[in-house]
Q: What sequence folds into this?
């Protein structure tokens, strides 16, 4: 990536602004659990075609993804949602498995992505959407190449851009993120090349091309009547065991299933007790007067509140209706509350009011902390220097909106400087990551703003409450230590027993977002075992292993109902068709009357599209309609919903002449899309994959 190495623009501020956005890309593809693995005799989480994925390598990638995503949420003042860490370990492993499979196949074919090609996809003339979507200029809707280049410069060469020590560590998550994006872009391009090769090898012949054209060129408008299968009671149609077994054996390969563990489980919500509510109410009563009168609000809240004092001004119009009504008329030191909502007591005290813009737009140039260029560039601009020319040289942005609430991401001195500056001259300010030369370009209309100190006391389960709930459940499983007792005694004890057939790839249970601990236990337990108590978010979970279904085919008992319904509908269709034919009907109205329904219309029915507007997926109808004679009654025909009778009311044949080359290209594009989306699934199906991650996590 020689081209990238030459990029040396300064863009520290962009690392904060754009880095946060780019981290969102990583969330869907790379995350992890953060759990520590148990020591295992076999040091591997998977084996792919004889190649092992070691626990050490897996853990390292997991750790990297964890750091990235935690940084993403930290910058937003949030934590990872419940269940995130567990379910996304599998995605990390899937990525590693896919990489091994893909590399093995591509190596044999000699397919690769050169450094020059990758550079072009990342920052050249053909930047991929995976990257460009995060660097769009909001005014033009086009890629902001300067922003992209500046970001790359900082994350690929932090030291060269003045980021050392603590500042270097601060941008490490963004650097790791960019490395993963590079890998993702490369893998996507490799898959595209592989898919393109397969598409060329399986391209349409002349007959296929002409057939596709003919299938799509004619559309029909139809009038139809349908008699639903529900018009015949199920009880009147007999389905034999022989018929069910024959259908099962015929389609057996589609019923393949992984190993499953049948679990019975109980959940207990960890919620505050009445004593917990009373205790917090008493604390709020005790603090109320002191909060109203203290001279050191920040210190008082630091010692007594669940939330620290933010010391920021917010637009009154952005507050809740009740708080807005209070703040519009309140003066300094006025108090609102206490109020109780969502298990939280709150009081608010006005620390200041002002009329000021809600947000300010700036343009800026960014420099490494302590740069000697900051002051010189500031002087040049104050003397009339060309900002756009300097932005091309040093990096920056000509349109960034700042609000006072952004102080946690940018630093309070930076935000305070922006909002205290009058006029539109150039000035200097330092954010958490860089030094900047700024100019205010726009201010929103002044609005009333208020600085609110908030005393917040949330009601949470106390240690006693936690212990009592845990001990109650522990006593229950000690007494009812078999699967039968576990379930039969639950109602009397006040518990509800749930059931789930879990696979090794599952991460949740109904009602439990993060149930990986319990599922992992099930796959390492014996039939009849009762688990320990697991904690998942605000729930206790205990499980009993009722049974084990080995990898293979789903038993007939599980799919019997679906097979019986299908066979029953086939028989209903046969009966309905025979009945309608026997009546010798000759009009749509007569058919509709006999079918006890009404005539409906559908437009643009095409052989090429099996879904019909207002009807649904009915390939039998879409296959017949374009070739039926206008005015001719077609049917009765078995469909998915019931038995149909229809007539073509109008036809439209495209006047577009047959273009063999264009049609072949259209088919190739469609085929390429299918191959691209399914290639990895096919390669994984062909590969020998031993996934042992359930042993560890």
A:
């Amino acid at each position: 990536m020689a081209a990238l190495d030459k990029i040396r623009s300064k863009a520290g501020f962009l690392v904060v602004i754009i880095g946060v956005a780019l981290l969102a890309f990583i969330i869907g593809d790379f995350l992890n659990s953060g759990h520590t693995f148990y020591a295992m005799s076999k040091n591997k989480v998977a084996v792919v075609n004889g190649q092992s994925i070691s626990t050490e390598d897996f853990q390292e990638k997991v750790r990297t993804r964890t750091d990235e995503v935690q940084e993403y949420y930290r910058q937003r003042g949030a934590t990872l949602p419940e269940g995130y860490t567990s379910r996304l370990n599998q995605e990390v492993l899937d990525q590693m498995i896919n990489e091994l499979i893909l590399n093995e196949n591509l190596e044999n074919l000699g397919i690769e992505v050169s450094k020059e090609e990758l550079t072009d996809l990342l920052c050249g003339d053909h930047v991929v959407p995976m990257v460009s979507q995060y660097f769009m200029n909001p005014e033009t809707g086009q890629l902001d190449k300067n922003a992209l280049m500046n970001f790359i410069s900082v994350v690929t060469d932090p030291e060269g851009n003045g980021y050392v020590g603590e500042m270097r560590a601060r941008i490490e998550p963004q650097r790791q993120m960019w490395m993963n994006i590079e890998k993702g872009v490369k893998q996507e391009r490799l898959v595209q090349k592989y898919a393109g090769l397969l598409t060329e090898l399986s391209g349409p012949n002349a007959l296929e091309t002409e057939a596709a054209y003919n299938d799509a060129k004619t559309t029909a408008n139809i009038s139809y009547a349908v008699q639903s299968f529900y018009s015949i009671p199920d009880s009147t149609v007999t389905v034999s065991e022989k018929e069910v077994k024959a259908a099962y054996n015929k389609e057996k390969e589609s019923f393949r299933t992984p190993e499953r563990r049948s679990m019975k489980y109980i959940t207990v919500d960890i919620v505050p007790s009445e004593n917990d509510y009373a205790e917090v109410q008493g604390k709020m009563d005790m603090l109320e007067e002191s909060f109203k009168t203290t001279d050191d609000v920040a210190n008082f809240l630091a010692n007594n509140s669940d939330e620290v004092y933010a010391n920021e001004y917010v637009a009154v119009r952005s507050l809740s209706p009740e708080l807005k009504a209070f703040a519009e008329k309140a003066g300094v030191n006025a108090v609102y509350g206490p109020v109780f909502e969502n298990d939280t007591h709150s009081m608010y005290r006005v620390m200041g009011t002002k009329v000021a813009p809600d947000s300010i737009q700036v343009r800026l140039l960014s420099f490494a902390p302590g740069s000697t260029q900051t002051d010189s560039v500031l002087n040049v601009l104050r003397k009339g220097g060309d900002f756009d020319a300097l932005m091309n040289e040093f990096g920056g942005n000509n349109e960034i909106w700042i609000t006072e609430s952004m102080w946690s991401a940018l630093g309070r001195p930076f935000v305070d400087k922006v909002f205290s500056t009058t006029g539109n001259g150039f000035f200097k300010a330092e954010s958490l990551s860089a030094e900047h030369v700024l100019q205010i370009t726009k201010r929103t209309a002044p609005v009333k703003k208020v600085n609110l100190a908030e005393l917040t006391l949330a009601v949470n389960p106390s240690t006693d409450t936690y212990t009592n709930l845990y001990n109650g459940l522990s006593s229950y499983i000690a007494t009812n230590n078999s699967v039968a007792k576990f379930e039969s005694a639950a109602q009397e004890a006040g518990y509800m027993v749930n059931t789930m057939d879990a696979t090794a790839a599952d991460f949740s249970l109904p009602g439990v977002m993060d149930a990986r601990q319990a599922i992992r236990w099930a796959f390492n337990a014996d039939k009849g075992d009762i688990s320990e108590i697991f904690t998942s978010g605000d729930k206790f979970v205990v499980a009993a292993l009722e049974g084990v279904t080995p990898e293979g085919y789903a038993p007939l008992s599980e799919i019997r109902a679906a097979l019986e319904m299908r066979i029953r509908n086939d028989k209903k269709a046969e009966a309905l068709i025979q009945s309608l034919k026997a009546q010798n009907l000759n009009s749509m109205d007569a058919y509709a009357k006999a079918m006890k329904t009404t005539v409906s219309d559908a437009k643009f029915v095409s052989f090429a599209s099996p879904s019909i507007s207002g009807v649904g997926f009915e390939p039998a109808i879409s296959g017949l309609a374009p070739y039926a004679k206008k005015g001719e009654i077609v049917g009765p025909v078995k469909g998915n919903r019931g038995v149909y009778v229809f007539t073509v009311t109008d036809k439209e044949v495209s006047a577009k002449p047959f273009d063999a080359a264009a049609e072949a290209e259209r088919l190739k594009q469609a085929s390429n899309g299918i191959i691209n989306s399914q290639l990895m699934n096919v390669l994984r199906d062909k590969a020998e994959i031993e996934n042992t991650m359930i042993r560890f996590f």
Q: What stands out?
A: Residues 274-355 form one domain.
